[in-house]
Design goal:
about 280 residues; Alpha-Beta Plaits
Amino acid sequence: MDRISLNAYAKINLYLDVTGKRSDGYHLLKTIMHTISIHDTVTLEKGGKGITIHCTDDTIPCDEKNIAYKCADIFFSETNISDRDIHISIEKAIPSQAGMGGGSADGAAVLKGLNLLYKTGLSAEELCALGAGVGADIPFCVMGGCGYCTGIGEIIRPLPPLCGYVLIGKGREGISTAEAYRRIDERGICTEQNDLFNIFSDAPSLSRIAPYCRNAFDEVTGLREVAALRQLMTENGAVCSCMTGSGSAVFGLFEDKAAGKTAENILNEAGYFSRLCEFVKE
């Protein structure tokens, strides 16, 4: 086998809080993530000269700065594979700079795809360890499904997957991840004490978890489009709505598909990016 294509699924943060900061500058998190059906398509093909990348989004770098490149590089280094001639094609569907883990999802797909192409037989845990050296969200994107994540996001306790529909909305307004964390640092760490693992483990349903969906970044960034998107979603049938990651995409949870489609159309007509998705189990 010289060529393989994989889906690289986006994630949302159903809950996200910053619990501290390490001496090396990395922030400690408490978050519940879930993969959703919107995805990039990552194709790996042996050949060419070195690690090369093509992406359908021309705003994304296709050199050593790309997470997919970094994941391929660390994979070859750690497996002692000398033949590093691989071409990576990324067909983007996940919005960029949205807090949906698009780059991390692509990197995770590269690790899993190379593991299959080169028949290295690495376990999911070993792939997670490689990915953690590149980005904190990559281990979760390797595992997929639903997970309670701590540390810098790389310590994962699996949770039962949810059923229902997820509406993604995004405007043009945004904020850098660095600026979002700076504002968190200014505010000071103030975490909730709910037993989220048991809440999300105990017969989870959208109505059951809705009161606990929260994003600390939403509380400090104050983006007007985020507030407008949340209001539109909750006014049109979402059981709850939150920003994901450090923004600026917003998700709304819907128990009824028809209501989700109606809200999707309303957001599109208002000029927002809008896509109705489902939860992905793994």
